[in-house]
Design a protein that fits this description.
Elements lengths: L14 E14 L4 E14 L9 E8 L2 E8 L13 E4 L1 H11 L15 H8 L6 E9 L6 E6 H4 L44 H11 L18 E2 L3 E2 L4 E6 L10 E4 L4 E7 L2 E6 L3 E9 L7 E9 L8 E5 L17 E6 L9 E6 L6 E2 L10 E5 L4 E11 L2 E2 L3 E7 L14 E2 L3 E4 L6 E6 L12 E6 L5 E3 L2 E7 L5 E9 L2 E4 L6 E9 L2 E9 L1
Parallel strand pairs: 9-15
Antiparallel strand pairs: 1-2, 1-6, 2-3, 3-4, 5-7, 8-10, 10-13, 11-14, 12-13, 14-15, 16-17, 17-20, 18-21, 19-20, 21-22, 21-23, 24-25, 25-26, 26-31, 27-28, 29-30, 29-32, 32-33
Length: 527
């Protein structure tokens, strides 16, 4: 039966076996014992060197009584390194280890020690005067690896194209009608090298299954399937129909079966070794590929396909260190800086662009509308505490996702945006009164506004008592309730005048005041 140990290929010239013999010396003292080991011999075995190499070490033997003996060999075989190819192995290292372990120790009495070289031998030979005794033991390195190709598969299968590197993979059907590469009608192969002339239950079942068939009939060959030869896209857009499958019929022994494990994919048709798949809706799709064996269970593997636009259903906001955040505004102009990152976007590696929008109920400044490309970070610059609401969407090759809303509780300022004890609001540009309001709201410009204001005309020659020329300035006003619904829109409101809000119900509203591409946002309670 097959040895249950699973061996993998070593590297060219790798040491694959090491055994050492040691003298274990024990000296009994009145208080404690002294124990030490002395290596007296060692044996190494190496894989052959790479093809085309000059002399390289393949074996080494040394003992304490003689000089080291090293065996070297070149590799002129243009078919590769025969130690490192597919095939049945012969566990020569294991047999050496078993023989050594089952044999006598290197020595078992102190009388053997004088055989060592003169200086050390003399020293060890005197140890018995101090109550010393010695015993021998062997040690073996971990990972001793059997020679992998005692009988290479290329030779055992009488490969019809032998003039190649014999380490080339054989993960395809050598009996394929369109590319027959062996004179045998069928064969059984494992994914790992097994011991030469060994059997496991599957190989026995395959062999007996062939004996049970009529003369001239054989079971399909069994060999490891190279899943890398199966082509399928990582992504699809809704409505796409693509072909998935193996490169050619010789990659498998029988036609695969395709099973869809998600609602957003559909098998349109199947033709031999390939199938056509249609993408129906956004999400992650799963396809199972099963390939029946002539014996034993089917070989199977799965493929995952991301369908449609980006999925932000599981996205979330992570607050990040504001001290290392690339800020687009001077933080000292605000009472806080809140730095956020949008995480959890499915297949973020496929995202080409991210867009962010501040919702009308949010007051604080932010830089989300300044971020470009795949930048998924944003800075919020508040002057008061609030529930800051914004929405995010992402785009990939299939288009834009739906908007997804996020809420961040801003609580690092000394006051709340909704609280006010004064009868008006004075900003860097306007005076808004009364606050709270009931029937009207008046807006006027302060004396030295921060913004640059533009007017279409001033009344030439008409001045007030102080000699100031009268100019009329207009702003646009939008009022939103806390659900984000616009309840009032005034495209041209003359500063210094009021507008009616008596029809609005009691509550807190968000007012946007804009001029020349600039916008201020304020919360206005209405009684």
């Amino acid at each position: 039966m097959e040895d249950e140990r699973a061996y993998h290929f070593g590297n060219d010239s790798q040491r694959v076996f090491n055994a050492t013999a040691h003298a274990r010396v024990k000296i009994d003292l009145p208080i404690e014992n002294i124990v030490f080991r002395v290596q007296v011999a060692s044996l190494d075995s190496h894989f052959m060197p790479s093809s085309g190499s000059s002399d390289k070490k393949i074996a080494r033997f040394s003992n304490i009584r003689s000089s080291e003996k090293v065996t070297k060999a070149p590799n002129f075989n243009n078919r590769g390194n025969m130690d490192n190819v597919s095939g049945g192995y012969f566990d020569v290292q294991g047999q050496i280890q078993s023989s050594v372990e089952g044999g006598p120790p290197p020595f078992n009495t102190v009388n053997h020690i004088p055989l060592l070289p003169s200086a050390q031998g003399f020293l060890y030979s005197q140890l018995h005067l101090f109550g010393a005794n010695a015993s021998g033991e062997y040690r073996f390195s971990d990972g001793n690896n059997p020679i992998n190709s005692f009988i290479p598969t290329f030779s055992a299968m009488a490969h019809l194209n032998p003039d190649q590197d014999w380490s080339n993979p054989l993960s395809f059907n050598l009996t394929c009608e369109s590319n027959t590469l062996t004179p045998f009608d069928s064969y059984y192969g494992e994914s790992l090298n097994t011991e030469h002339v060994s059997f496991n239950q599957k190989s026995i079942d395959w062999l007996l299954g062939n004996f049970a068939l009529d003369v001239g009939d054989v079971l399909e060959p069994v060999f490891p399937i190279d899943t890398a030869s199966f082509s399928s896209p990582d992504t699809m857009c809704v409505g796409d129909i693509v072909t998935i499958g193996f490169e050619d019929e010789c990659k498998v022994a029988s036609a695969p079966t395709y099973i869809v494990h998600s609602d957003n994919l559909r098998i349109v048709s199947q033709n031999g070794y390939s199938a056509q798949v249609e993408a129906l809706s956004n999400g992650v799709g799963y396809i199972q590929v099963n390939i029946s064996n002539s014996v034993g269970p089917s070989q199977g593997f799965g493929r995952q396909i991301h369908v449609g636009t980006p999925n932000l259903d599981n996205a979330f906001v992570t607050e990040i260190d504001s001290s290392t955040f690339l800020s687009l505004y001077p933080p000292n102009n605000f009472c806080d800086l809140v730095a956020l990152r949008i995480d959890g976007i499915e297949r973020f590696d496929l995202v080409d662009e991210i867009e962010m929008q501040k919702l009308p109920t949010s007051i604080a400044y932010w830089d989300g509308d300044q971020r470009t490309g795949r930048d998924n970070t944003v800075g919020i610059y508040p002057n008061c505490n609030e529930l800051f609401r914004f929405q995010v969407r992402a785009r990939n090759a299939c288009g834009w996702s739906e908007w997804v809303e996020f809420v961040k509780d801003i609580d690092g300022c000394g006051n709340d945006c909704s609280s006010t004890s004064s009868s008006n609001i004075v900003s860097n540009n306007f005076i808004i009164s009364p606050v709270p309001a009931s029937t009207i709201i008046a807006i006027d410009m302060i004396q030295d506004p921060q913004w640059t204001f533009y007017t279409k005309a001033c009344s030439d020659g008409i001045a007030d008592v102080g000699g100031t020329t009268h100019c009329t300035y207009f702003v646009s006003i939008q009022l939103y309730d806390f659900s984000g619904n616009q309840v009032l829109n005034i495209s041209h409101h003359e500063l210094g005048t009021s507008f009616d809000i008596s029809h609005l119900t009691t509550g807190t509203y968000v007012m946007h005041v804009s001029h020349g591409g600039q916008t201020e946002i304020h919360q206005i309670p209405i009684n």
